[in-house]
């Protein structure tokens, strides 16, 4: 609402005439006819059009006047953007005289007035040959000119139906010379109201910026962690300072600043610092989208531009205005990109900040076009900043609201926790009781493991003692010549070698099992297609199964199996299948069957391999122990009858080393089955 009122005031303040624009008179060939203009009813009129003009053309030496060229020139307009009637372009630095004859009705009772804008960079106005106002010192040479920019209002009486205006302008210190905005004329009351409106709207915006700046400084002092408050305060203050140096020039008037060079240096420094603090404010608000390195780059650029303003003359750094404007534009583009990303990621207040910054950037673009003389307008950056401030106030309100909401939520949670404290204590007691039961279970498991260890030692002792005792008996028989026949001696030696080989196999199995359990094995992994693995198993065991009279089959049972593969150590996986298949052969009678099935399950990202036989199966109470070390289905059987009892334990460790699982179960139709689940290759 406040922004709307300010804009309405601004638009009213810019109104110069009650007539339609097409009926407003325009100057032609240095004459403007206002004889039909009713000052009280029609209001203020711009003295725009073609004025008479004399240009004092200079050589490269600015202190040396060479000639005077008489012509006509469009007003308003800056010199560098205009051409004289003969097509000759004007330079922005030089000396020129404007002349305009005003035809009007004699105003005997009304005092008339003319409102002059900021004219670069020194001027004198003569009315009917009398000097009525001057800004700076106007000279035909650069050494004679003292620049000073300030708008002026001149009141005068009309003694006849014609008024002659002569405006002498000199510029040797600024990039742009001439009359940038319209000169307006009206009766004293209308011009005075226009001046008051301009001053009032600038003072309102200036006061708002200064007050909001100090307000955010106070917020920063109260909470030093919120660096964004300090940066936003500096943004408001620098824009306010720049506004006070241009336009009506309130700061220049208050400080009686007669040094134009110092004033314009302060203006450019405030301009650069406004862009720098604005970028810093947005970067600190949304650091994930705008990294800190961008703020460092902005700081270095701002420092360089300020250094240039300090060390070079105004004509140099004002001519480099495009660099300063690019700094502001590029900073604005980077901020907009960061805010768009923040809005997409639903950052707090990002949408409001984006709307405020977009409006602010539009006013920046307007001012850049205006100050470059590309279109007629006024300085709108303070209005854009005020709009950004309104959006920022909404963001602050949103943050406070969310903070209060979180505080209320935490208060409610604390109340709930306090009310349910007894329930939580009871729950905690139950958890402790469950933990105690878990410890009891762990104790039982440890006792079982200790028993298993004792049985392991006993089994190892049994499996080693029996063959060693037999070896000892055979050796004693050979030593005492109990066995004398050569054939019998050879058979005994072969039997002894068989026992030694069995011992070596048992010792090797124990070594392999200990290495696997310690996870000290390095797998030689390779990508094996399921079709290739199936063919490998058929090739290795097909003929042997056929020789033993057992039906053997290896097949793929899923449509996805043909195109999938597994990543395995094929040599170690061969050992797994050797243990499983030879166990199956041992308990499968002649005429029985052993079937291997492989099925890929992409939805679970695994492959299921099953080795099923038609043998006697496994006792139900033994299913949970088949993978224990030294487990044997026949408890009375020992190593002399074949098998170390470590094969399935080794198979289990190899499968788990491949991040897989293995389990045993009995089939409904009879016989046992071993199921292996391995991950599919990526």
UniProtKB/TrEMBL annotation:
Biological processes, Gene Ontology terms: cellular response to phosphate starvation
Database matches in SUPFAM superfamilies: ATPase domain of HSP90 chaperone/DNA topoisomerase II/histidine kinase (SSF55874), Homodimeric domain of signal transducing histidine kinase (SSF47384)
Gene Ontology terms for molecular function: ATP binding; phosphoprotein phosphatase activity; phosphorelay sensor kinase activity
Catalyses which reaction(s): ATP + protein L-histidine = ADP + protein N-phospho-L-histidine
TM segment ranges: 203-222, 229-256, 262-282, 294-315, 321-340, 352-374, 380-402
SMART domains associated with the record: HATPase_c, HisKA
Database matches in InterPro entries: 7TMR_DISM_rcpt_extracell_dom1 (IPR011623), BphY/WalK/GraS-like (IPR050351), HATPase_C_sf (IPR036890), HATPase_dom (IPR003594), His_kinase_dom (IPR005467), HisK_dim/P_dom (IPR003661), HisK_dim/P_sf (IPR036097), Sig_transdc_His_kin-like_C (IPR004358)
Pfam families: 7TMR-DISM_7TM, HATPase_c, HisKA
Entry EC no(s): 2.7.13.3
Key words of the record: ATP-binding, Coiled coil, Kinase, Membrane, Nucleotide-binding, Phosphoprotein, Transferase, Transmembrane, Transmembrane helix, Two-component regulatory system
GO cellular component: plasma membrane
Coiled-coil positions: 429-459
Residues of the Histidine kinase domain: 459-682
Compartments where found: Cell membrane
Name of this protein: histidine kinase
């Amino acid at each position: 609402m406040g922004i709307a009122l300010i804009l309405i005031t601004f638009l009213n303040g810019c109104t110069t005439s009650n007539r339609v624009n097409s009926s407003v008179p325009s100057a032609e060939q240095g004459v403007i006819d206002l004889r039909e203009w009713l000052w009280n009813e029609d209001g203020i009129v711009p003295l725009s059009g073609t004025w008479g003009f004399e240009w004092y053309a200079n050589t490269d030496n600015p202190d040396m006047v060479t000639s005077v060229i008489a012509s006509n020139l469009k007003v308003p307009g800056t010199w560098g953007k205009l051409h004289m009637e003969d097509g000759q372009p004007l330079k922005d630095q030089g000396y020129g005289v404007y002349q305009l004859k005003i035809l009007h009705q004699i105003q005997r009772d009304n005092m008339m007035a003319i409102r002059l804008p900021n004219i670069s960079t020194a001027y004198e106005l003569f009315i009917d040959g009398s000097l009525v106002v001057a800004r700076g010192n106007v000279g035909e040479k650069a050494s004679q000119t003292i620049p000073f920019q300030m708008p002026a209002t001149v009141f005068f009486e009309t003694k006849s139906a014609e008024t002659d205006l002569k405006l002498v302008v000199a510029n040797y210190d600024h990039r742009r010379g001439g009359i940038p905005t319209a000169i307006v004329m009206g009766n004293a009351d209308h011009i005075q109201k226009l001046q008051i409106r301009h001053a009032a709207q600038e003072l309102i915006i200036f006061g708002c910026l200064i007050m909001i700046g100090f307000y955010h400084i106070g917020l920063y002092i109260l909470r030093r962690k919120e660096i964004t408050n300090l940066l936003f305060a500096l943004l408001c203050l620098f824009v306010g300072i720049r506004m006070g140096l241009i336009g009506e020039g309130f700061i220049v008037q208050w400080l009686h600043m007669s040094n134009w060079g110092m004033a314009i240096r302060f203006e450019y420094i405030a301009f650069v610092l406004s862009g720098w603090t604005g970028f810093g404010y947005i970067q600190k608000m949304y650091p994930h989208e705008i990294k800190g390195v961008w703020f460092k780059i902005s700081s270095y650029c701002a420092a360089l531009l300020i250094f240039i303003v300090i060390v070079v003359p105004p004509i140099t750094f004002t001519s480099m205005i495009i660099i300063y404007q690019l700094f502001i534009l590029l900073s604005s583009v980077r901020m907009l990109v960061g805010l768009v990303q923040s809005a997409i990621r639903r950052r707090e207040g990002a949408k409001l900040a984006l709307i405020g910054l977009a409006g602010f950037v539009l006013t920046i673009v307007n001012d850049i076009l205006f100050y470059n003389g590309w279109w007629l307008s006024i300085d709108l950056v303070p209005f854009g900043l005020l709009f950004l401030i309104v959006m920022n106030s909404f963001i602050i309100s949103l943050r406070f609201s969310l903070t209060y909401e979180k505080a209320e939520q935490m208060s409610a949670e604390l109340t709930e926790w306090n009310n349910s404290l007894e329930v939580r204590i009871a729950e905690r007691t139950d958890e402790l009781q469950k933990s105690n039961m878990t410890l009891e279970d762990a104790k039982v498991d440890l006792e079982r493991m200790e028993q298993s260890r004792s049985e392991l030692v006993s089994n190892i002792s049994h499996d080693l003692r029996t063959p060693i005792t037999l070896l000892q008996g055979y050796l004693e028989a050979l030593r005492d010549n109990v066995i004398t026949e050569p054939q019998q001696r050879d058979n005994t030696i072969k039997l002894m070698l068989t026992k030694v080989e069995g011992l070596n196999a048992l010792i090797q199995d124990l070594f392999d099992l200990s290495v696997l359990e310690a996870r000290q094995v390095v797998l030689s992994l390779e990508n094996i297609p399921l079709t290739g693995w199936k063919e490998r198993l058929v090739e290795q065991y097909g003929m042997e199964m056929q020789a033993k009279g057992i039906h053997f089959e290896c097949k793929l049972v899923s449509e996805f199996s043909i195109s999938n593969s597994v990543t395995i150590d094929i040599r170690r996986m061969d050992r797994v299948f050797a243990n499983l298949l030879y166990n199956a052969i041992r308990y499968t009678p002649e005429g029985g069957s052993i079937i291997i099935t492989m099925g890929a399950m992409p939805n679970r990202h695994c492959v299921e391999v099953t080795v099923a036989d038609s043998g006697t199966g496994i006792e139900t109470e033994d299913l949970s122990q088949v993978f224990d070390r030294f487990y044997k289905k026949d408890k009375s059987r020992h190593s002399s009858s074949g098998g170390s009892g470590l094969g399935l334990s080794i198979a289990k460790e190899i499968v788990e080393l491949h991040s897989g699982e293995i389990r045993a179960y009995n089939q409904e139709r009879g016989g046992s089955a071993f199921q292996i689940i391995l991950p599919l290759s990526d």
